[in-house]
Amino acid sequence: MDSVKGMDSLRTVEGGSITGKVTPADGATEVEADNGTDKLKGAVAQGAFAIPAAKSGTYTITILGKAPYKNAVIKDVKVEEGKATDLGEIKLEQ
């Protein structure tokens, strides 16, 4: 039975990942990835974020800005199985 549990654990980390950096570093605390079926969330720490285990597909990414910064939305982000999708630096506007 333990091997089955291990296989289930491995299955939860399959997929791709979405990473990026927010500037200013303290301008946001959370990021969301939505593919129309699943909504994934990740924390922004020191300006960096990562959303692991995203299923392959196309996502809309929303960086939730803290006042006085506005939310940033990035559409049509493609995620592939086993690959990291790096969004680079995202500058938040006031």
Automatic annotation (TrEMBL):
The alphabetical list of record keywords is:
Carboxypeptidase, Hydrolase, Protease
| Example GO molecular function | carboxypeptidase activity
Its name, as the record gives it, is Carboxypeptidase regulatory-like domain-containing protein
